[in-house]
Amino acid sequence: MKDKVVVITGASRGIGESIALAFAKEKAKLVLVARNPEDLERVRGRAMEAGAEDVLTVTTDISKEEEVEVMVEVTLSRFGRIDVLVNNAGVGYFKSVKETTLKEWQTMFDINVTGLFLCSRGVLQPMLEQGSGHILNISSDVGRRTIAGGAGYCATKFAVQGFADSLRKEVQSKGVKVTNVLPGMTDTYFANSEQGAAHKADWLQAEDIARAVLYAASQPEGVLVDDITIHPMVQEY
Ligand code: NAP
After folding, report:
1. Residue 236 — very low, low, confident or very high, per pLDDT cuts 50/70/90?
2. Which CATH superfamily is 5-230 part of?
3. Among all residues, which ones are annotated catalytic?
4. Which family does it belong to (predicted)?
5. For the chain, is the Cβ count within 10 Å smaller at the N or the C terminus?
6. For the CA of 110, the nearest atom of ligand 1
7. Which ligand 1 atom lies nearest to the CA of residue 139?
C-alpha cells in the first residue's frame, strides 16, 4: 500500500481509527474524514507516528453533498489521485420500530446510505480515469441477516449491500473493485457506547476489522474480494 492514496470516512475513532493506523503502517498517504476536527487531529498524529507517508484531515459531514465534493477536491489537489476509499462512517439507533423516531430513521439513512453513496460517487470519476481503484464499505453482519430491535439500522445496511453489489457490476470491468466488510459485534464507541467496557471483552476489536480491510485492499490487481463477514466466537451468525 506504499504511496497509495487512501480516504477513510469515520476515521476519528473506533474502527475507522484502526483502519487508518493499519494503512499508516503500510506507508500509505491518508485522508482522514469525520465531523470532529480535534479527534481527526489526534488520529493524524498517531498515523504519522505509525509510519504514514502523509496525512490530510478534512472535516466533513458525509451526508452533505457540498462537503463531500470539497473533500474530494481537496484530496485531488493535494495528492492528484485516489486509490482507495473506505466507507466506514456510520451510526445506529437500536430500538423497536414503535419507538424509532423519524429523525433517527432519517439520520441513519442520511449517513449510512446517502453519505456512502456521495463519497462513492465522488471518488468514482478519478478512479475511472485512472482505470483503477477500490471502494471498501464497512457494512454489517446485519446487512445480510436481520435482528429484532434494530430494523432501521438493518435496513440501512441491507441498502449498503444492494448498492455495493450493483456498483461492483457497473465498475468491475473498468478496473474498480468494490468490497463489503460485514463485522459482527465490535468494541468501539458505536451507538453511544464506551470502547473498552467490560461486557465487550469477548467482542471483536477494531483492529480485527482493520486487518480484514487491509487484506482485501492489498490483493493483487486481478483478485477481487466481494464480501468478508467477520464476527466474534461468542456471537452466532
Ligand atoms: P464509532 O466508534 O461510533 O465511530 C463512528 C465514526 O463515524 C466516527 O469517526 C464518527 O466521527 C464518524 N461519523 C459519524 N457520522 C458521520 C458523518 N455524518 N460524517 C462523517 N463522519 C461521521 O463506531 P464504529 O463501530 O467504529 O463504526 C464504524 C462502522 O462500523 C459503522 O459504519 C458501523 O455501522 C459499522 N459497524 C459497527 C459495528 C460495531 O459493533 N461497532 C458492527 C458492525 C458494523 P464524527 O462523530 O466526528 O463525525
Report:
1. confident
2. NAD(P)-binding Rossmann-like Domain (3.40.50.720)
3. 153
4. Belongs to the short-chain dehydrogenases/reductases (SDR) family.
5. C
6. 18
7. 44
pTM exceeding 0.85 = yes
Residues whose CB falls within 8 Å of the CB of residue 68, separated by 6 or more in sequence, listed in order: 60, 62, 115, 118, 119, 122
The grid cell for 83 is 486509490
- Cell 458505536 maps to which residue? 190
In this structure, which residue's CA is closest to atom 25 in ligand 1?
190
Residues 121-157 pLDDT 10s: 999 999 999 999 999 999 999 999 999 999 999 999 9
Ligand 1 atom having least distance to the Cα of 11: 9
d(C-alpha 85, C-alpha 30), whole Å: 10
**Burial (CB count <10 Å: 0-12, 13-18, 19+), residue 67:** middle
Q: For residue 170, how far is its CA from the centre of ligand 1 (angstroms)?
A: 27
Q: Where are the domains of the chain?
A: 5-230
d(CA 237, CA 146) in angstroms, rounded, equals 10
**203-226 mean pLDDT:** 98
Q: Whose CA is nearest to atom 32 of ligand 1?
A: 90
What distance in angstroms lies between residue 88's CA and the mean position of ligand 1's atoms? 6
